[in-house]
Design brief:
By secondary structure, the chain is mainly β. The chain is built from no helices and 14 strands.
Length: 186
């Protein structure tokens, strides 16, 4: 029929059966920190309808995202923390990714021997003992100074202590400084 209108309409549909791919860019898996509040960042290969973050099985964040990247703060507990991200794309496909990061706010325990007082020898054996119940110690950060001078390379270094037999110390006060950085890396 001439001049008649058609009732036909066009409809475009996209079928999405693929789950989103979530990549965590920070922090690294199996990392250590001494900060209880950290930023978790990452990206997705497609827009998300939501992103749920669990820390130690507790839901901490529910981010409704339509962008391809995310960054948010989370709070860690002392020790190992399991972080799981659950994502859903706009079609409802779901995926999960996870990492572990650990919080260690306790400084290493360091013992010096002799630990002060008056000595009657100019050749004492200096022993620096160290332990750490959290992240462990990175002996590469060990830096022993005597009276402000680095003498680390003169010590015999072991996993739990370092020893040096000194000689010819002058009479007077002498000081050994904290041999580790404030937070040694694992």
């Amino acid at each position: 029929m001439k001049g008649a209108k058609s009732d036909e309409e066009s409809l475009n549909t996209t079928i999405d059966g693929a789950a989103p791919i979530i990549t965590i860019t920070s922090p690294e898996d199996q990392s250590w920190t001494n900060e209880s509040q950290i930023t978790i960042s990452g990206e997705s290969n497609e827009a998300l309808s939501n992103l749920i973050i669990y820390v130690n099985q507790l839901k901490t964040q529910n981010l409704g995202l339509t962008t391809l990247s995310f960054s948010t703060s989370i709070t860690l507990q002392e020790g190992q923390n399991a972080i799981v991200l659950e994502a859903a794309d706009l079609a409802g496909n779901k995926s999960q990714t996870s990492l572990t990061t650990s919080l260690d706010t306790q400084a290493p325990v360091i013992t010096l021997n002799p630990d002060g007082g008056t000595l009657n020898t100019d050749s004492p054996t200096l022993t620096v003992s160290y332990t750490d119940e959290g992240s462990g110690l990175n002996l590469e950060t060990l830096n022993i100074t005597l009276d402000g001078s680095d003498i680390t390379n003169q010590f015999t270094i072991h996993s739990s202590n370092s020893q040096l037999s000194t000689s010819n110390l002058s009479e007077g006060n002498h000081g050994v400084e904290n041999p580790f950085k404030v937070y040694p890396s694992p």
